[in-house]
Design brief:
Length: 56
């Protein structure tokens, strides 16, 4: 279940990566950069979450 959230967060990260090039400088790029960092960190952390801590 937790790895599934990590995969979802990774796909959000990829979608945002493709979208950031379409905006000019300003608030939109700053906001997308913030979302990129947070979704990337979340995906990475959830991918590395130890399976022994998951409830079965």
């Amino acid at each position: 279940m937790i790895k599934g959230f990590g995969i979802f967060s990774f796909f959000v990260f990829l979608i945002l990566c493709f979208q950031i090039g379409e905006f000019g400088p300003g608030f939109a790029v700053w906001f997308l950069s913030l979302l990129l960092v947070s979704s990337g960190v979340t995906a990475y952390a959830l991918f590395l979450f130890p399976e022994s801590m998951e409830e079965h």
